[in-house]
Write the C-alpha cells for this entry.
Amino acid sequence: MKAIGVNGSPRKKWNTATLLEKAIEGAAIEGAKTEMFHLYDLNYKGCISCFACKTKDGKSYGKCEVKDELTGVLKKVNEADVIILGSPIYFGSITGEMRSFMERLFFPLLTYTDPSGSLLSRKVRTAFIYTLGASEEMARERGFDKPIVANEMWMKMIFGASETLCSYDTTQFEDYSKVYAPRFDPAKKAKVREEVFPIDCEKAFKMGAGLVRELR
Ligand SMILES: Cc1cc2nc3c(=O)[nH]c(=O)nc-3n(C[C@H](O)[C@H](O)[C@H](O)COP(=O)(O)O)c2cc1C
C-alpha cells in the first residue's frame, strides 16, 4: 500500500506542508509506505494539448507523454493507492503549480465519453487539503469554495472517491510586525494558530489514516 502527498505550496514547512505531513503520518500509522513531493522543486508545465493520451491505439493512450521533471512523479502518483494533494488558496483558487500538475494527472485518465468516465480500474482513495488566509465566512462570501467543490467533483469522477479538508485563517507571516498587512490582527492569527490549527492537523492525520483503512 502506497500513500503519496503532493505539496502545491512553495513553502515546504508551512501550513499546507504541515497538514500534508500529518495526513501522510496517519497513512503510515496504518501501514502505508509514504512519499511526499514538493511541486515547486520541479520544472514542468501543464497539459499542452498534444492528445497523445487520447490517441486511439497510441502507445501513450491514458498516459501523459510529456517528458519533464513531473514525469517520474506522475508515474508514482498513478501507481499509488492513496493520493493526498495540498494547496494554499491563491487569488481564490489553487496555486498555478498545483493546477498544472492536476491537468497532467487528470486529463489522461478522464474519458471523453457521455457521461464522462475514468480509465482508472483500481480502487484508489484521494483527498485534497486546502489552506486559506481567509476565515471560513469570508472564503464563502468571496467564492473561494467554488473551485474547492469543483475539484472534489473532478476527483470523485476520476478516482471514485475524494475527501476535502480546509484549514482557514492560517498564519501567513512569521512576524506580522515586519510586514505591512493592517487587515490582519496578529493576536487573532496567533490564537487560531494555537487553538484551531492543531485541530486541523489532527483532522488531517485521521483523514490520512482513514483513507488507508478504507482500502483494506
Ligand atoms: C500570492 C498569494 C495569494 C493569496 N490569495 C489568497 C486568497 O485568495 N484567499 C485566501 O484565503 N488566502 C490567500 N492567500 C493566503 C494563503 O492561502 C495562506 O496564507 C496559505 O495558508 C499559505 O499556505 P502555506 O503556508 O502552505 O504557504 C494568498 C497568499 C499568497 C502568497
User: Anything to note?
Assistant: Residues 8 and 87 are 5 Å apart (CA to CA). The mean pLDDT is 98.
